[in-house]
Every structure is written in C-alpha cells, then in structure tokens.
Design brief:
The protein is 45% helix and 21% strand. By secondary structure, it is α/β, with parallel strands linked by helices. The strands form four sheets. It has an eight-stranded mixed beta barrel with strand order 13-14-15-16-17-18-19-20, surrounded by six helices. The chain is flat.
Length: 572
C-alpha cells in the first residue's frame, strides 16, 4: 500500500511563489514590493490593479482575501498556511494591516520544508514490511478518535489480531518468508475493509483503519458501530479471510487467528485504555479453548456471558416455546387502510423482565442462539400470515427483522426459502427489514445476500433510515423496495420548516429511486397529516395501534376497513 506523502512533492518548480505585496479588502493588488514566481514572466508593475484571483490559483487567493478581511476587521496580524489542491502545504502567509482597507501580504514558499517533514513523519509511521501504518500511528489515530467520541458521542471498537501460528509456519515451511506472509495478511485485511487506509489521515466518519503493531499482531480501528455485535461480525469476517490457506511453491498452509475486542466507551475512553483492554481480551482469546474471539470482560456482553444466566434462560425459553410474537400495523397514508404488519418478538417476563431487549439480543448473537431464535420467528410469522390470508385477509402483508449475525452467517436465503415453501405464501407479501449497518456491510459484497433474497420474490426494506451510516450512494445502488424513516427524523416533519424540508428531501429522493416510504413512530394526527403532505406512502405508530397479538390483528384489520368504508360512503 502506498501512503500519501511518500512520493515526491506534487509541487513542481514552476509553481513556487514568494511575494510581498499590498492588497485591498476586495482582493485588488495595490502595490508589489517583491515578486518571485518561477515560470511567471509578469513584471511587478503589470500586476498592480489586477485581482489576486487573476494571478494566483484559488487555493492561494481565496483564503488570503478571506483572511485579509478578517485582519482588517480585527486590526490584528494574521498568519496562515496554504495548501495545494492535493492537500500538500505549499506556502505560508503573514497578513499585516495597513490602515482601514488594506493589508500587506508576505508570502513564502515552504514546500521543500513541508515535503521533507511530511515524508519523514510518514516514514516514521510506516511498517516497511507490510506497507501498513505502525503502532505509533495507530495510537495517534486512536487518540484523535476517542477525543472526538468524547465530545460528540458514539461507539467504536478496537480489534487486535494475533496470527498465533506464524512462527510455527515459518519453521515448518521454509519456503514461506515472513515478509511474504505479512504482505498477504495486509492485503487481506485491506480487502476485507474496503476504503481502509486510503489516506494516512483517517476519515473517522466513514472508514476503518488497519495497522501492524508488532511481529505477528495487527490492529483494526472500527470508528462507527451500533452494538458490540457489529464489531464481532467484522472480527469474524476478517478471521475468515485470514484463515484461508496461503499457497506458494505448490504448498499451502492455513493461519490460525485470535482476536481481542475493546469497545468505546465501556472498556475505556482513551486510546491507552482501549489498547490495554484489547490486549487483555486478545490474551484471553489466544489461550481460550472455546472461542478465538474475545471481548474485554468490562463489556456488557461479557459480563452477561460470564454469569451464564441469560444464555441458559434463552435456551430454556426457546425449548419450551415461551416466546411470542406481536404485530405492529402499517397503514396506507392516503386511506389509513391496514396493509401490513411488522412482527415483533416478545420475551417472557418471568425470565427476562429485568434485562433490556438489546442486551438479550447481544447475548443471543454472541452465543449463536440468535439463529435458532430467528428460525422460530420466521416459521411462526410466515405461518401466521398464511393463516390470516386463508381466513380472508388476502391483502395483508408481513415485515420481519433480522439481526446482523443472522444476515452475515445465518443462511438467511435458505431459511427464507424453506419458510415460504412450508407456509405456501406469496413471497411478494413478505418484506425483510435490515438496519443501515447490515445494508452497508452487504454493499461491500455487491449486495450478494440482498440480491439472493430478492431472487425469491421477497421485498427488502431499510428500517430506522437516517440513524445509521448508509450513504445515498448505497441507497441508490441497493436492491431495495422501501425505506422506513427513523421516528426521530419523522418527528421533525411537524417541527418547523427545516425539519420538514429534511424529511421531504428524503421522501423525494426515495421516490426518485423507485422506493416506497414508511414513516415510523407516528403518534399524533398532526404528525400523520404532515407525513402525508410530504409524500410518505405508509405510516406506522401508536396513533393507529400498539403491537397486537395475532388474534386481535384480524379484528383490528376488519374494523379498520369497516370504519373507512363507512366514512367513504358518508363522504360520497
């Protein structure tokens, strides 16, 4: 991997500029005292009277004029560093106020100095064997990330990766040099985290970052997650990639990988705390007989797993069929007719009354119970829809949710196909809802799973849109049928012009992409009206109904249709 700054300076000799001149607040050149711009044959006198942006490129002229005005307003000297279009610092300028409407500009070329410093800094941060950044770089970037999260909020993860059999492989297969293996590992990590290390200055809003921290260990910063389960999925995916056999000289061997995970802010709020706790988790994973992936014991998930209570109760409740499903209606915005229901899993109060649902989901994902639980939800929800359809509710559709683990490793396509066959349902009446995080991960694999589900005739939707990391580009390229706008965003549709404009823009974009729009969390008639006015196709929320059990849904749908038929007749 070539990191920026390791190549020669992008500023040619013909671009070097040094000057001393006087300009007005509007950027007009008033006097030129010194002019030295290689490749520019202009004479100093020829420049007087011209606008600065006519003789210098925008990356120089625009910030100089802007800061000249600030200097005049404050009557203080200002200094600034100026960068080229490629982001390399090329010049520094000092602006000295000369009365009420003009400043002296002293411009100095610093590209040689900056280029050497920049290259030295990057060389100091580079691991020469792998081409990845090193531990010093990792700690510096982790410090920047944790400071940002402390100010703005959010969750992140640090994953440490140990290639536990690297030394054994070197001794057993002398054909494999350490450099060959290390480079292959680096390639696989970067392939598994698309966009990572595109620039040594990490974009913490979008991309993960990868570094080599010692002879056989690597680190991954995951800057934006919703739950610890998201980090676990990434760790498992990277492990799967790394454990694929490496081949050379007609021989091959497989790597053994252990990972340790620490989460911000449960396991630390500084770079040092996260790194040390991830090291502890990694040591546990290396010596574990049961799992090669370990969270630091400070996380909520591991505390629950160490108690063992939730896992055993989950298994017991599933075996005894103590779970139940309720259904939250979705209505058509224009007519308020019930068109679909979203299946929601309900936990037995006796077992889980003291635990938040998110915690139970985390434990179910980590232990693998989520796959059996998901099978149960799909089978029962599909069969219930078939029962309703056979009882005369022919137009009713169903929406079901899946977790990150189910989507990534749960044979979701096979499960869906099996449940469709057993229930004899029209697949077009079933929508599978994903989070933005899940869609983002599937986008990295060209929407392989989404396309597989669509090939069955299933409809696809994003739930809680506007809450996660999914970009408009992912939305435009994804095989979706609908988006469900997050309730916090929906609430702004009736909260002033700016909030309404934001919601309206999302709806308009979705319609341009051929997607229908469901507004979540509609809890008042005023909000329902606002959502309908901006173009939402469907509405969902407690204004229409709370979640109902299967028996009450049939009566609710029938009474709703009767009510609207009566209203329509009265108005006709």
């Amino acid at each position: 991997m070539n990191l920026p700054g390791l190549s020669p300076s992008d500023q040619s000799n013909s671009d070097r500029r040094n000057a001393v001149m006087e300009i007005s607040a509007a950027g007009k050149i008033l006097n030129v005292f010194s002019w030295n711009a290689a490749g520019d044959e202009s004479q100093a006198d020829d420049l007087v009277g011209q606008q600065l942006d006519a003789v210098w490129p925008a990356e120089l002229s625009v910030p100089i004029v802007k800061n000249a005005r600030r200097a005049i307003r404050s009557q203080q000297v200002r200094s600034l560093r100026l960068k080229s279009a490629t982001g390399v610092t090329t010049n520094e300028a000092i602006l000295i106020v000369q009365g009420r409407d003009r400043v002296m500009v002293v411009l100095r070329d610093v590209s040689d100095i900056e280029g050497k410093v920049s290259r030295l800094e990057r060389l100091a941060y580079l691991d020469k064997v792998s081409g990845l950044p090193n531990r010093e770089w990792l700690m510096a970037e982790l410090a920047v990330l944790t400071e940002r999260l402390c100010l703005r909020g959010g969750r992140a993860a640090l994953i440490l990766i140990d290639i536990t059999n690297l030394r054994v492989a070197e001794r057993a297969y002398f054909e494999f040099s350490r450099a060959t293996v290390i480079k292959k590992i680096a390639e696989r990590l970067l392939d598994g985290l698309r966009g990572a290390n595109e620039d040594i200055d990490v974009d913490h809003e979008r991309y993960s970052a990868v570094a080599r921290i010692d002879a056989q260990r690597f680190a991954v910063i995951v800057p934006k997650i919703e739950t610890g389960g998201d980090a676990a999925v990434i760790a498992e995916r990277l492990s799967d990639l790394l454990e694929q056999p490496i081949e050379t000289h007609d021989k091959q061997f497989g790597l053994r990988v252990a990972t340790g995970l620490a989460l911000f802010s449960q396991d630390g709020r500084t770079a040092e705390e996260l790194f040390e706790n991830a090291k502890v988790a990694l040591s546990d994973a290396v010596h574990s007989q049961t799992s090669s992936h370990k969270f630091h014991s400070g996380t909520v998930r591991m505390r629950a797993l160490e108690r063992g209570d939730l896992e055993s109760e989950l298994q017991s409740a599933l075996a005894k069929e103590e779970f139940s499903l309720t259904y939250l209606p979705i209505v058509k915005a224009a007519s308020r007719d019930v068109v679909s229901v979203e299946a929601l899993l309900r936990w037995p109060t006796r077992s889980f009354g003291g635990q938040p649902v998110s915690e139970i989901i985390n434990v179910a994902e980590y232990t693998g119970v989520i796959f059996s639980l998901g099978d149960w939800v799909f089978a029962n929800a599909f069969q219930q829809l078939a029962t309703w359809n056979n009882a005369g509710l022919d137009n009713l559709a169903l929406a079901v949710n899946v977790s990150a683990q189910e989507f990534a490793r749960g044979k979701l396509i096979e499960r869906t196909e099996r449940c469709l066959r057993q229930s004899d349902l029209d697949p077009g009446r079933v929508t599978i809802e994903l989070s933005e995080q899940i869609l983002f991960r599937d986008a990295l694999n060209n929407f392989e799973i989404c396309n597989g589900l669509r090939s069955l005739g299933i409809r696809m939707a994003i739930g809680d849109f506007g809450k996660g990391i999914c970009s408009f580009e992912h939305l435009a390229n994804s095989p979706l049928d609908a988006i469900k706008i997050n309730m916090d965003l929906v609430s702004r549709a009736n909260d002033g012009a700016r909030g309404r404009a934001a919601c309206s823009a999302i709806v308009a974009l979705a319609h341009e992409l051929g997607l229908s729009v469901v507004a979540e969390g509609v809890d008042s008639q005023e909000l329902a009206t606002a959502c309908q006015e901006i173009g939402c196709d469907f509405l969902q929320g407690f204004l229409f109904s709370p979640p109902l059990d299967a028996e009450r849904i049939a009566g609710f749908v029938a009474s709703h249709e009767s009510l609207h038929a009566t209203t329509a007749a009265a108005n006709g």
